[in-house]
Every structure is written in C-alpha cells, then in structure tokens.
Automatic annotation (TrEMBL), chains A, B:
Cross-referenced HAMAP family: ArgJ
NCBIfam families: ArgJ, PRK05388.1
Gene expressing this chain: argJ
UniProt GO molecular function: L-glutamate N-acetyltransferase activity, acting on acetyl-L-ornithine as donor
Pfam families referenced in this protein's UniProt entry, alphabetically: ArgJ (PF01960)
Source organism of this protein record: Streptacidiphilus alkalitolerans
Subunit (UniProt): Heterotetramer of two alpha and two beta chains.
Biological or metabolic pathway of the protein: Amino-acid biosynthesis; L-arginine biosynthesis; N(2)-acetyl-L-ornithine from L-glutamate: step 1/4; Amino-acid biosynthesis; L-arginine biosynthesis; L-ornithine and N-acetyl-L-glutamate from L-glutamate and N(2)-acetyl-L-ornithine (cyclic): step 1/1
Role: Catalyzes two activities which are involved in the cyclic version of arginine biosynthesis: the synthesis of N-acetylglutamate from glutamate and acetyl-CoA as the acetyl donor, and of ornithine by transacetylation between N(2)-acetylornithine and glutamate.
Record-marked site positions (Involved in the stabilization of negative charge on the oxyanion by the formation of the oxyanion hole): T122, G123
UniProt record similarity statement: Belongs to the ArgJ family.
Name by which UniProt lists this protein: Arginine biosynthesis bifunctional protein ArgJ
Length: 397, 397
C-alpha cells in the first residue's frame, strides 16, 4: 500500500560523522516492535562542546524536548541520544524521569556530565518508553560508536521514513557541516516530528551557532509543511567540535548550515508519508516576507488543492480560494497564478489555457504573484493521497 | 468509489416552501454536463419582501456574492435564482455581467425589480456559465414555480451532495421557518461552499431577520469545518413573506432560525465528501468562547487526527498536539480529553484505558477540557478518507 517515492533515495554521505570530532552509532535496542534499529547515539569528542538547538513551538512538548531545552541553555552538548519507537510525549512526570534516566545512563556509560546529554524521541504519543530495553541499548550503542557511524545513526531514527536522510557540505577552508534527519509525517511550521542533528568540526561559539541555526531553520525546516500538523517532539541540534581547528567567517558558516538544512528539508518532503508529488509554492511580490509566508502556507494547507495536485489537475481556483482566506495585502482582481510555469490565472480570472500545464512529473511548482510589494517566500508541501490516509489511519511506529 | 453515508437520507419536508408566501422550482437547464437538475428559483409572494443574508468571508468572492451583497443592502429580496454546475468565481467583469443578466432575466420573466433578485452559484471556479442554457432555464423554472416546489429546488442546487437537504420548524403560534442547503466539500468557517435559503411566513423586519440569522449562523454553519477550506461562493439567505400575519417574539423566532440552521448544518456534515464519520468536538472550560472555538477548530483541522478517526483509532495524542498549536489559555499538564465518553487523557497524560473506547459508530464525540474557565464551543467535522481524496482529485460538478 505504500506508494513509491521516486525522489526518496538514500544519499551517499555519512551525515553526522562527516565532520571531524564526532562518533556515532545506531543499534536495535528492541524499542520498536518491528525489530528494526531504534536507538542512535552521537558523541562530540571536542575539543569544543559548543551547541545550539531549536525545538517545537507546540505548547504540548514531549519530555525529551523539556529536557534538551534545559541542556542547551549553557550551549554545551557532549552527546545526543535519540530513539524511535516512542515519542515519550504526554507521559507526565514519569516520562520525564525516563528521559532523565536515559541521559544519566549515557553519561555513566561514556563518562560524561548528564547535564550535557541531549535526548530526542519520536514515535507514538502517550506511551511510556520500554526502559528495560532502552537502557541496555545505550550500552550497545556506546560499544558501537565509530567515526563512520553516521549512516547507522540516521537509520536508527527512522519511523515511517522509507530511507535515511543525511547531508554534508565540505568547505574549501577545511571544515565540514554534516547532518541527519528523520521525519515523514506531521511536517509543519515550528518544525514537526522532525529530529535533526547537525555537526561541524568548525570552531564556532554557541551564540554564533545559534544565530546560524535559527537563520537556517527559519527558511528551511520551518517552511516545510507537508500536512499542517505540528509535532510535540521536533528537535534540531547543531554541535561543533572545533576538531578542524578552523574558525570560519560567520557568513560562510551560516551558508553551509543553510545548505545542509535545505538538503535535509527537501529529503523530508521527498519522503513524506504517502505523497506522490513534491510541491514548491513560491509567493512573489508580497508586501512583506511574513505575508508571503502566510499566503504560501495557506496554499500549502488547502486539502482540496492538495487532492487536485494528486489528480494532476491544475485547479488554480483552489489556489485563489486559499489566498483569499489570508489577510495579506493584495487586490483579488490582480492575482496571477502559474502552475509549472503556465500562468493559468491572470488578474484574478482565467489566464492561459490550463491544458498547457503538464503535471506528470513528481515536482510541481505553484507561483502566486500578489502584485503588492517586493517580498517573496517559498514553502514546500506534498499532495494529499489515499496512501497518506492509509498510513495515518493505521499508524504504528 | 463513493462511500455510503449512513446519516445522509433525504428529509421529508419541502424546505423553502414549507412557509406560506413562497413558491419554488428546480429544473434542468443543461448547465451541468451530467444532465441532472441545475437551476433553482425561489420567489417570495409577500406581502413582505424582508430579507437578510450572510456571505463568505473569503476575500476572493464569486460574482454572485458581489451581486447579492448589493441586493441585500436594502433588506428586500423578491426572488433568489441559484445554479449548480458552475461557481462563476474568478471570472472577471464578464462573469459579473453574467450574474447581472441572470437577475435581469428573472426580473423580466416574473415582473420584478432586478435589484431585488439575489443570485447564488456553485460548482467549479474559473469557468464562465453557459448563459445560452441558463437564461432559457430561467423561463423554464418560472413556469414550474409552485407552493410545493421546495424539494425540486433543493435537488437542483446539489453538486457532490448525495441527497438534498431541507428542514422546517413550525411554531405553535402559526408561523414556520423552512430552508434548504447544499454543500458537501469546502465546508469551513465563514461558511464554505454552502448555499442556503431559509424562508419564513412570519412578519419580521430586515434588521431583526439579520440579527436572528447572524446569531444562528455563528454557532451552526460557521462551526461546520469539514475540511478547513473556505469557499468563494457561500451564501445564506433568510426571506420573510409575512404571509402568516404573525409577528413573532424575537427570541422565539431566533430560536426557530437556529433550529433550522442546526438541522441543515448537521445534514451537511452527514453528507460530507467521502466521510465515514461525523465528529463533534466539544471544548469545555475554556477561558473564552473564542478560545474554545480556536481550540475546537484546531482539532477539527488536524489531518492526522482525522485519519486516525477514520481508522477508529482513539489517538488522543494527536488531539493534544493540535491543542498545543493554539494560543488559548491552558496548562498542558491539566488537559483532559475524552473520546466517545472515555477520558483517555487526564492531566495531559495517559488516562483511562483506550481499549474502552468504541469507535464503530458513525458518530464520534471528542471532548477537550481546558480547565481554564467556563466557556465552551462545539465544532463539527468529519474524518479524512481515501474517498475524500478520490472525490477531490477527480472532481467535476
């Protein structure tokens, strides 16, 4: 029943271990009933432990999010432990104790400070984690740590992802940014059921890491909106070991972080649950960037349009009805909309012949010109398919 | 491929002709390619022509909405002409001329003032109406007008509705409120692709009609949110003939209007495209009614939850993650959620055994207790199904 994902093929890199100073592992602890890998460990061997993180803006936050937000406060992370097979969300004080115990176990096993161990979880909400399996799994993962373990770690954080997701950028000056991501449903603003760990061997202080990370996520992960649903567990971490000994110029570093985030974000869209189309929505000539994002998101969340895209129907009327629900500046009689480059709507009315539009390819581009300014924004989404319904009405981690 | 709608059976009444002073007709003008009825006419024979209307809040409005908003400004409507088979939205100045010509044709045929003829359209956006078929259809409809033509009119406004929708309330004091509705997709706040005509033989002035209508729609049609999509064409009209000679007390009249609106709104939900479940979301103990509505709507629009309901999975975690995206007052650790009466989430964590929840019936009730005040609100929605995707990826009117 799972649809093919033509754009979802595993990249060749090693993700979090592409940068020097990091070891990683991915093991099968038995958390998932499926018996597939479910526990990943990423360790920063330094010399620097600088780190930054962004988390879900959902007010219902999972225990590991509460924990890791605290860990990140001093900008130091020595290790990240990530499990699939359970979100540890809505599990109350006992769930928080489980997260705490997991961090302590990692610290004990590796000789670290638990207050510098971040925790991330993904899977079903409302279930306690099987700690009798998770804690021995930590020892297993610690024993497997290696400087080429990034791919195994990326595999172990998958839930409904069909492939693991990694990305790397190597800068000519001798430093690298790499990362891994998981996420195939609940993709939405404020980051949604995505777990991402980025690593770099550049020498960058926590404040600069934070600035680069927030700038990158704002226009990448925050603008991936597969199904409008926001997770309780989203976590994006950036760890810097300084192992390269190179302190990069901030702009170059921020650009590398953005490139890795863009790569991973597009991998998330390409592997979204049940999707058969990857849809890029470009809103141009908006009065402000915020309004461009609002309009793009409104289009991205229109179920009727998403069904039409699945049916390869260039239904621009549904684009206009979505734009009309926003408060952005525009004149309804001045809206232009193109689908895959054909301006099927001009001046809020019928434009070029819709039969000119080909929607056979997986990639679909919708352009909305508001004629209200010079700001623009891009949001990525997917079509809505029967396979999406199937996967999410019969979900198990 | 169309799913059965166990709750969608045609009611027995005559809808807009249940009240005295009204004639109606429904005919096949040939606007729809399917050859089914597509043109409805409702005429108020007075003695009063008092009327009120509410329209879509979408900023991209169809030509008939622009027209009818003008007609309603003086609170007088002598006739309503409604077509299915084309929304006449995003059709530019020529589309507006088509609406104008339709009203003129009705006026000429019946000896009325065109400025008192409301027009409503539903169907695909972005296509001109076939006026060579619509205008002769007006004459056909005029010839068919009768005091029991309400059912034929209700049938003629259907698009993907599987059954026509009518409702009536007869008051002991000798006056009646009746109505008809269409709408099976794009159901959302601000009224969405619903066309509704309500009639009464009570003697009520336009201002009082307007007050009763706005009070009723605010808590009925405005809280039906099948798929979060807002139409360009929504129109709800209330016409009062005063044929009963009875001037009702305002509260009793408003209550009757609300009862008819509730009845029709639930018929819309019961016949929503592809739905297999009707879902009532009760948010209780909110700080304000607006916050209760925000939370209920956020739950109603969560695609993942709607898929889970389709799969009869009492996935309360998805309810909490939806609540968490709102800015309503609540403590995440004090949220209680019941599904079909079983409090599966207590204090933001695991509550009663989810295996106690039966979701076999078409009716599903989700209750969210915010413990933040004493306000409450109810929103109705549906599950998300493969049939919904199918109907909307292969839509034709």
């Amino acid at each position: 029943m799972t649809s093919p994902h033509p754009t979802a093929s595993a990249p060749a890199g090693t993700g979090v271990t592409a940068a020097g100073g990091f070891r990683a592992a991915g093991v099968t602890a038995g958390i998932k009933v499926s018996g597939t890998p479910d526990l990943a460990l990423v360790v920063n061997d330094g010399p620097s432990l600088a780190a930054a993180g962004v988390f879900t803006s959902n007010r219902v936050k999972a225990a590991p999010v509460h924990w890791s937000e605290q860990v990140l406060k001093d900008g130091q992370v020595s290790a990240v432990i990530l499990n699939s097979g359970g979100a540890n969300a809505c599990t109350g004080p006992l769930g928080f104790q489980d997260t705490h115990a997991t961090a302590e176990k990692v610290a004990d096993t590796l000789g670290l400070n638990a207050a510098e161990v971040a925790v991330a979880s993904t899977g079903l909400i409302g279930l306690r984690l099987p700690m009798d399996k998770l804690l021995p799994g930590v020892e297993l993962a610690a024993a497997e740590l290696s400087t080429d373990g990034g791919r195994a770690a990326a595999i172990a954080i998958k839930t409904t992802d069909t492939v693991e997701k990694t990305a790397e950028v190597a800068h000519p000056d001798g430093w690298t940014v790499g990362g891994m991501a998981k996420g195939a449903g609940m993709l939405a603003p404020g980051l949604a059921t995505m777990l991402v760990v980025l690593t770099t061997d550049a020498a960058v202080e926590p404040a600069a890491l934070d600035a680069a990370l927030r700038a990158a996520t704002r226009t990448t992960f925050d603008r991936v909106d597969s199904d409008g649903c926001m997770s309780t567990n989203d976590t994006v971490l950036l760890l810097a070991s300084a192992a390269s000994g190179v302190a990069p110029e901030q702009d170059a570093f921020a650009e590398a972080v953005r490139a890795v985030c863009t790569d991973l974000a597009l991998q998330l869209i390409g592997d979204a649950e049940g999707a058969s189309k990857d849809v890029r929505i470009d809103v141009v000539n908006a009065a402000t960037e915020d309004e461009a994002v609002d309009v793009a998101r409104s289009i991205a969340r229109n179920n009727l349009l998403k069904c039409a895209i699945h049916g390869e129907d260039p239904n621009w009327g549904r684009v206009l009805s979505a734009i009309g629900t926003t408060s952005a500046a525009f004149d309804p009689d001045a809206l232009d909309v193109a689908i895959n480059g054909v301006w099927v709507c001009r001046g809020g009315s019928v434009g070029d012949d819709r039969d000119l539009v080909s929607m056979k390819d997986r990639q679909v581009v919708i352009t909305a010109d508001l004629h209200a300014g010079s700001a623009s924004a891009t949001v990525w989404t997917n079509d809505l398919t029967a396979d999406y319904v199937h996967e999410n009405s019969a979900y198990s981690s």
